[in-house]
Amino acid sequence: MVFARGKSRFQFVSRDMHAIDSADINRKAFSYFDRLKRVERFVQDHYSEDISRKTVAEVAALEEKYFSTFFRCKTGVRFRDWLTLVRVSRAMRLLRERNHPISIVACKAGFQNVRTFERSFKRCTGTTPRGYKRLALASPAQDTDPEKSDR
Fold first, then answer.
1. What's the first-to-final CA gap in the chain, in angstroms?
2. Interior angle at CA 71, CA 27 and CA 120, nearest 5
3. Domain for residue 103, yes or no?
4. Which residues fall within 8 angstroms of residue 130, CB to CB, at 6 or more apart?
5. Residues near 48 by Cβ (< 8 Å), separated by ≥ 6?
6. 86 and 52, same structural domain?
7. For residues 39 and 56, what is the distance between their CA atoms, to the nearest angstrom?
8. How many Cβ atoms from other residues are within 10 Å of residue 8's Cβ?
9. Which of 8, 72, 73, 107 has the fewest C-beta atoms under 10 angstroms from its C-beta?
10. Which of 39, 57, 76 marks a domain boundary?
Protein backbone atom coordinates (compact mmCIF):
# COMPACT_ATOMS: atom_id res chain seq x y z
CA MET A 1 0.00 0.00 0.00
CA VAL A 2 1.21 3.49 -0.72
CA PHE A 3 0.67 6.07 2.02
CA ALA A 4 0.71 9.78 1.30
CA ARG A 5 -0.20 12.42 3.89
CA GLY A 6 -2.96 10.47 5.61
CA LYS A 7 -4.44 9.11 2.40
CA SER A 8 -3.94 5.62 1.12
CA ARG A 9 -4.52 3.79 -2.07
CA PHE A 10 -4.12 0.30 -3.36
CA GLN A 11 -1.57 -0.78 -5.85
CA PHE A 12 -2.87 -4.09 -7.08
CA VAL A 13 -0.89 -6.44 -9.27
CA SER A 14 -3.33 -8.57 -11.22
CA ARG A 15 -2.69 -12.17 -12.21
CA ASP A 16 -1.33 -11.10 -15.57
CA MET A 17 1.12 -8.82 -13.69
CA HIS A 18 -0.42 -5.48 -14.65
CA ALA A 19 -0.13 -3.00 -11.80
CA ILE A 20 -3.44 -1.34 -11.01
CA ASP A 21 -3.45 1.62 -8.70
CA SER A 22 -6.83 2.35 -7.12
CA ALA A 23 -6.27 6.01 -7.95
CA ASP A 24 -6.38 5.00 -11.64
CA ILE A 25 -9.97 3.78 -11.38
CA ASN A 26 -12.38 6.20 -13.00
CA ARG A 27 -14.79 6.50 -10.05
CA LYS A 28 -16.82 9.15 -11.86
CA ALA A 29 -17.97 6.48 -14.31
CA PHE A 30 -19.99 4.85 -11.53
CA SER A 31 -22.02 8.00 -11.03
CA TYR A 32 -22.27 8.90 -14.73
CA PHE A 33 -23.32 5.57 -16.25
CA ASP A 34 -26.54 4.09 -14.90
CA ARG A 35 -25.42 0.57 -15.80
CA LEU A 36 -22.31 0.97 -13.65
CA LYS A 37 -24.36 2.49 -10.82
CA ARG A 38 -26.47 -0.66 -10.78
CA VAL A 39 -23.38 -2.87 -10.84
CA GLU A 40 -21.75 -0.93 -8.01
CA ARG A 41 -24.92 -1.09 -5.91
CA PHE A 42 -25.25 -4.82 -6.59
CA VAL A 43 -21.64 -5.48 -5.60
CA GLN A 44 -21.99 -3.35 -2.45
CA ASP A 45 -24.99 -5.46 -1.44
CA HIS A 46 -23.58 -8.86 -2.47
CA TYR A 47 -19.77 -8.62 -2.24
CA SER A 48 -19.62 -11.46 0.30
CA GLU A 49 -21.33 -13.82 -2.17
CA ASP A 50 -19.93 -15.51 -5.25
CA ILE A 51 -20.40 -12.94 -8.02
CA SER A 52 -20.00 -14.07 -11.60
CA ARG A 53 -19.41 -11.87 -14.61
CA LYS A 54 -22.61 -13.29 -16.08
CA THR A 55 -24.63 -12.11 -13.08
CA VAL A 56 -23.26 -8.55 -13.15
CA ALA A 57 -23.71 -8.43 -16.92
CA GLU A 58 -27.39 -9.19 -16.32
CA VAL A 59 -27.54 -6.46 -13.66
CA ALA A 60 -26.04 -4.05 -16.19
CA ALA A 61 -28.41 -5.33 -18.91
CA LEU A 62 -25.51 -6.14 -21.24
CA GLU A 63 -24.18 -9.24 -22.95
CA GLU A 64 -21.48 -10.93 -20.88
CA LYS A 65 -18.67 -10.33 -23.38
CA TYR A 66 -19.65 -6.72 -23.98
CA PHE A 67 -19.97 -6.08 -20.24
CA SER A 68 -16.27 -6.82 -19.74
CA THR A 69 -15.30 -4.43 -22.52
CA PHE A 70 -17.75 -1.76 -21.32
CA PHE A 71 -16.60 -1.98 -17.71
CA ARG A 72 -12.91 -1.80 -18.57
CA CYS A 73 -13.40 1.01 -21.08
CA LYS A 74 -15.39 3.18 -18.67
CA THR A 75 -13.54 2.47 -15.40
CA GLY A 76 -10.01 1.73 -16.61
CA VAL A 77 -9.80 -1.67 -14.85
CA ARG A 78 -11.12 -5.17 -15.35
CA PHE A 79 -14.25 -6.07 -13.42
CA ARG A 80 -12.58 -8.96 -11.57
CA ASP A 81 -9.73 -6.68 -10.41
CA TRP A 82 -12.18 -4.02 -9.24
CA LEU A 83 -14.21 -6.64 -7.36
CA THR A 84 -11.04 -7.84 -5.64
CA LEU A 85 -10.25 -4.25 -4.61
CA VAL A 86 -13.76 -3.86 -3.17
CA ARG A 87 -13.44 -7.09 -1.22
CA VAL A 88 -9.99 -6.28 0.12
CA SER A 89 -11.25 -2.85 1.17
CA ARG A 90 -14.09 -4.51 3.11
CA ALA A 91 -11.62 -6.92 4.68
CA MET A 92 -9.44 -4.01 5.77
CA ARG A 93 -12.42 -2.42 7.46
CA LEU A 94 -13.31 -5.68 9.22
CA LEU A 95 -9.73 -6.15 10.38
CA ARG A 96 -9.68 -2.63 11.84
CA GLU A 97 -13.11 -2.69 13.45
CA ARG A 98 -13.34 -6.16 14.93
CA ASN A 99 -11.06 -8.80 16.33
CA HIS A 100 -12.28 -11.58 14.02
CA PRO A 101 -10.01 -14.44 12.95
CA ILE A 102 -8.54 -14.05 9.46
CA SER A 103 -10.65 -16.96 8.16
CA ILE A 104 -13.89 -15.23 9.23
CA VAL A 105 -12.78 -11.94 7.65
CA ALA A 106 -11.94 -13.76 4.39
CA CYS A 107 -15.39 -15.35 4.31
CA LYS A 108 -17.24 -12.13 5.19
CA ALA A 109 -15.31 -10.23 2.52
CA GLY A 110 -16.38 -12.72 -0.17
CA PHE A 111 -13.25 -14.79 -0.69
CA GLN A 112 -13.73 -18.50 -1.32
CA ASN A 113 -10.78 -19.57 0.81
CA VAL A 114 -8.15 -18.10 3.11
CA ARG A 115 -5.25 -18.72 0.72
CA THR A 116 -6.90 -16.73 -2.07
CA PHE A 117 -7.72 -13.98 0.42
CA GLU A 118 -4.14 -13.77 1.68
CA ARG A 119 -2.72 -13.65 -1.85
CA SER A 120 -5.19 -10.98 -2.99
CA PHE A 121 -4.72 -8.95 0.18
CA LYS A 122 -0.95 -8.97 -0.17
CA ARG A 123 -1.18 -8.08 -3.88
CA CYS A 124 -3.39 -5.10 -3.05
CA THR A 125 -1.76 -3.80 0.11
CA GLY A 126 1.80 -5.09 0.09
CA THR A 127 1.30 -6.73 3.48
CA THR A 128 -0.40 -9.82 4.83
CA PRO A 129 -3.80 -9.65 6.53
CA ARG A 130 -2.13 -10.56 9.84
CA GLY A 131 0.45 -7.82 9.40
CA TYR A 132 -2.24 -5.29 8.55
CA LYS A 133 -4.31 -6.39 11.53
CA ARG A 134 -1.33 -5.89 13.85
CA LEU A 135 -0.72 -2.41 12.43
CA ALA A 136 -4.40 -1.49 12.56
CA LEU A 137 -4.78 -2.61 16.17
CA ALA A 138 -1.59 -0.78 17.14
CA SER A 139 -2.77 2.53 15.61
CA PRO A 140 -6.59 2.58 15.60
CA ALA A 141 -6.82 6.33 14.93
CA GLN A 142 -5.45 6.09 11.38
CA ASP A 143 -8.10 5.54 8.71
CA THR A 144 -6.59 3.62 5.81
CA ASP A 145 -9.69 2.77 3.81
CA PRO A 146 -9.12 3.64 0.14
CA GLU A 147 -12.85 3.55 -0.56
CA LYS A 148 -13.26 6.62 1.66
CA SER A 149 -10.12 8.51 0.65
CA ASP A 150 -10.48 8.17 -3.13
CA ARG A 151 -14.00 9.51 -3.47
1. 17
2. 75
3. yes
4. 102
5. 90, 107, 108, 109, 110
6. no
7. 6
8. 20
9. 73
10. 76
